[in-house]
Amino acid sequence: MNEPIPRAVPVHAPMDQFPVRDGELVVGGERLSLLAARVGATPFYAVDRGLLRRRVAELRAALPAGVKLHYAMKANPMPALVAFMAGLVDGIDVASGGELKVALDAGADAAEVSFAGPGKRDAELRQAVAARVLVNVESERELAVLAAAAAEFGVPARVAVRVNPDFELKGSGMRMGGGAKQFGVDADRVPALLARIGELGLAFEGFHLFAGSQNLRAEAICEAQRQSYELALRLAAHAPAPLRFLNLGGGFGIPYFPGETRLDLAPIGANLQALAERARTELPEASLVIELGRYFVGEAGVYVTRVVDRKLSRGQVFLVCDGGLNHHLAASGNFGQVVRKNYPVTVGNRLGDEARETATAVGPLCTPLDLLADRMSLPPADVGDLVVVFQSGAYGASASPQAFLGHAPVTEVLV
Ligand SMILES: *Cc1c(COP(=O)(O)O)cnc(C)c1O
């Protein structure tokens, strides 16, 4: 008789970025129960400064020296975090007039701020010209508004062209380029747009390509970078001025779900090294830029919510917590997931416990969608314990329907 080959059950990547002390998770150097007391209320998000610093250092070590790192602040626009990141990275990418204000307040250097987004209103474009930041132009319409603002204010309108490429990013969680898209200008229409930029006397500075998000396959990212470079090189022949920036996008993913593993930066570093060497002769005035959101901040943050009730329903344990979908839509599985999977979750003040039980952690909302952990193996928890959702530094509070059901907004701290 043939024995069935045992198949490995997919598990979450180890969340070993946070140490454990006295049976408790340590975030920002503090035991979780003390941190919760210091914050003063649950639920809360906490992002660890030391982990942000470490992540930037790892990227600097893995990528060639000349490559600029930009933080795409829509991943986490908390002002204290944006200010901290502004001091660590080479530039901030904003996606609205509101984010632009936060970035400038945070002390970001306007010369290194860029603004992308498919529906920039006239007022936002004028804001960008007045602030002297780079606008990644995504339509013909934007040009006239920018030219008028430049004439009115007597300052140059700095522009790059966001190109909707003629390829798609394989293995991406969310595709944002290739095919018919609301983002950028189709590659074949870019030469005409460049001519118009020249006629209007706008200050052309480069190209921006963003193929997609949440990619854990280094080879797919390298392929997209190579194709982006080739496309930019072809389009540069039509440009009214030499390229100063070539933003190759990002899309670096982090492991959220069972079976996913951390991205290998080594091949990406080697690939960028090769492209940077080519750029030295082919685009001699251009800096290569990589823009990342979740890769910088996602693994550095946790969402912490307290167990309000412990219930047994037909044999299943439910931990009812004081926050859920209203603060952390992504962990509930309702932010772009097709099939719901569990984020890595634990009970952060019970890590000394050897015992495990199968439990379901839910939030306080009157909807079955409000689920943080579906039948996971967790340290046994009771009322007052602290359920922790890892990988929560990106697309948390600002990407959640906080007003839904009228609970208090979540607290966010940088520690
Ligand atoms: C959302 C976005 C990013 C950030 O994506 P991450 O997956 O968080 O790295 C970067 N650039 C653009 C243009 C975006 O729209």
Model regions low in confidence, pLDDT < 50 over at least 5 residues: none
CATH architect. name of the largest domain: Alpha-Beta Barrel
Whole-angstrom Rg: 23 Å
What is the mean pLDDT? Answer: 96
Which percent range describes the beta-strand content?
25-35%
Q: How many H/I helical runs? A: 11
Largest sheet, strands/sense/barrel? 8 strands, mixed
What's the overall geometry? globular
Provide the CATH topology of the largest domain.
TIM Barrel
CATH superfamily of the largest domain: Alanine racemase
End-to-end C-alpha gap: 58 Å
Q: Tell me which ligands are bound.
A: pyridoxal-5'-phosphate
How many domain regions?
2
| Percent helix | 25-40%
What is the CATH class designation of the largest domain?
Alpha Beta
Structure summary, number of beta strands: 22
Q: Helix- and strand-based class?
A: alpha/beta
Cofactor: pyridoxal 5'-phosphate
InterPro entries: Ala_racemase/Decarboxylase_C (IPR009006), DCO2ase_PEP1 (IPR017530), De-COase2_CS (IPR022657), De-COase2_N (IPR022644), Orn/DAP/Arg_de-COase (IPR000183), PLP-binding_barrel (IPR029066)
Protein name: Pyridoxal-dependent decarboxylase, exosortase A system-associated
Keywords: Pyridoxal phosphate
